[in-house]
Design a protein that fits this description.
- GO terms for molecular function: catalytic activity; molybdenum ion binding; pyridoxal phosphate binding.
- This is Mitochondrial amidoxime-reducing component 1.
- The chain contains four helices and 18 strands.
- The protein has helices at 18-43, 49-80, 200-211, 258-265, and strands at residues 2-4, 8-12, 88-98, 107-109, 111-115, 118-121, 124-125, 129-133, 151-154, 161-165, 168-173, 183-188, 191-197, 217-221, 255-257, 281-284, 296-299, 302-305.
- The strands form four sheets. Strands 2, 3, 4, 15, 16, 17 and 18 form a seven-stranded mixed beta sheet that branches. The chain has a four-stranded antiparallel beta sheet with strand order 1-5-6-7, with no helix packed on it.
- Helix 1 packs antiparallel against helix 2.
């Protein structure tokens, strides 16, 4: 699915109403109760009627209610997982960003394709590189803020990446070659991930810049086109393994509105930009934090589900 910055954003905060679900629930209970009553009338001997009637009726109503409620819950869950039919226009795309390396600089693009593991443009894909220690555990800008000064860029064909950093010579990353390199051990938040090592030269470059040492850090690459990690934040019941992306923390996409950043900046001494929160989509038009309540979002013809808030 292709996106560009002229696209309009739509959202919905709800789809099926509670009253309609309740109506279906009570209809199911009533129907199951009637079926149970008919069954009891057919099977119950006449001589046992006096002693068993109250027990059977109580049991019948209980079974019918349980069955009806179970069907109601099933249908309610089904409805919750279906995209809505009606949409409300809320804004337009203001910016599109792809972050090829976790915790490093963003690449601003005018268009991109969206896939199950995140946005992409040729071999430029979102969070497919990360910096790790020599044992494969990843590091981030929270503990190594110099990572934010590493700026990736791509050629016009989006096939070759170049890394730049203050005081360092530029270095080229041959992305296409990394798909055939033997895998190495790597972890994101304690979860093992498939990865390939970029090279000793790149490891030295990153170690020199971040640690001022010759060794200590590596750059690894995610060579797959599908997510492979289970859900880490299980408290978010809508989050599934399909949403975990490549080397992302939680999900393969993140959306933010301009108004939310502006509202925050009014309370800060030093203003920040949207890139502080590392979104892929920046939307103009809605009020501050309205995006928190959007259950479904449609960009172009592609529909997204809001599965969790961003912890940033």
């Amino acid at each position: 699915n292709k996106f560009n910055k002229r696209m309009v954003i739509y959202e919905t905060s709800d789809q099926a109403t509670l009253s309609s679900r309740d109506a279906v629930y009570f209809l199911l209970v009533h129907l199951c109760t009637k079926i149970s009553e008919v069954s009891f009338r057919i099977k119950m001997p006449l001589d046992d009627f006096g002693t068993r009637c109250s027990v059977l009726l109580a049991t019948g109503v209980g079974l019918a209610s349980a069955t009806g409620y179970g069907l109601y819950k099933y249908l309610a869950n089904y409805w919750d997982n279906q995209p809505p039919q009606k949409w409300r226009q809320v804004g337009e795309l203001a910016d599109l960003y792809i972050y090829p390396i976790k915790s490093c600089g963003a690449i601003r693009v005018s268009h991109m394709d969206c896939t199950i593991i995140g946005p992409k443009l040729g071999l430029l894909r979102d969070r497919i590189f990360m910096v790790t220690r020599t044992d494969g555990t990843y590091i981030c800008a929270r503990t190594f803020p110099k990572l934010l000064l590493i700026q990736p860029s791509f050629d016009e064909q989006y096939e070759q990446m170049t890394l730049s950093a203050p005081g360092m010579p530029d270095i080229i990353v041959p992305v296409a070659d990394l798909f055939s390199v033997d895998p190495v051990k790597a972890w994101v938040w304690g979860q093992p991930v498939t990865a390939t090592d970029c090279s000793e030269e790149l490891a030295r470059w990153i170690s020199r810049f971040v640690l001022k040492e010759e060794t200590g850090l590596r750059l690894v690459f995610y060579p797959l086109d599908i997510p492979t990690r289970p859900v880490r934040e299980r408290q978010h019941v809508k989050l599934t393994a399909r949403d975990t992306g490549a080397l992302h923390n939680s999900t393969s996409f993140m959306l933010l509105t301009e108004a939310s950043v502006e509202d925050l900046n009014r309370r800060l001494q030093k203003p920040v930009t949207a890139q502080q929160f590392r979104p892929n989509f920046v939307v103009k038009g809605p009020g501050a934090f309205e995006e928190d309540d959007w259950k479904w979002i449609k960009i172009g013809e592609t529909v997204y589900r809001n599965v969790k808030p961003c912890n940033r």
